[in-house]
Write a structure and sequence with these properties.
It contains 4 helices and 6 strands; from the N terminus they run ββββαααββα. The chain is an alpha+beta fold. It has a single domain, classed as Arc Repressor Mutant, subunit A. α1 packs across α3.
Length: about 130
């Protein structure tokens, strides 16, 4: 398992999550960019971001996300839903998948929410 040491809090329903390009406001289900514009988050995008932010620096598998965010039994389903929602969330966070700054992919394992940090594997590869 890949883990980063990141000081964080448990983002509750009223949480605001700062990241390199702005702030994600979970209670309003929106992202506000430093430039002044923003975008809405869907309910599932909000739940996904909240779950990832609750475990900063820890690699979270697709199966865990299916179970904890979508409340689906991952043993009974084959889907790209998690990947598509992560992709949409990255676009809204303006996080480049090739050089992420917020939401990292750990190949074959899952995703890591690490605003302003780079997982050791990614740093060494860069």
């Amino acid at each position: 398992m890949h883990t980063l040491e990141i000081a964080g809090t448990n983002p509750g329903p009223e949480a605001e999550l700062p990241f390199h390009g702005g702030t994600a406001d979970l209670s309003r289900r929106e992202i506000r960019y430093h430039a002044g514009d923003g975008c809405r988050l869907s309910e599932l995008e909000t739940q996904l971001l909240r779950y990832l932010a609750t475990h900063p620096g820890r690699t979270i598998s697709r199966d865990e996300l299916l179970s904890q965010v979508w409340h689906l039994n991952p043993a009974r389903i084959l889907t790209r839903t998690v990947d598509m929602h992560v992709s949409n969330l990255r676009k809204k966070l303006r996080d480049c998948p090739e050089k992420p700054a917020v939401l990292f992919t750990v190949l074959g394992e899952g995703y890591v929410f690490a605003p302003n940090k780079r997982p050791r594997e990614q740093r060494n590869a860069a």
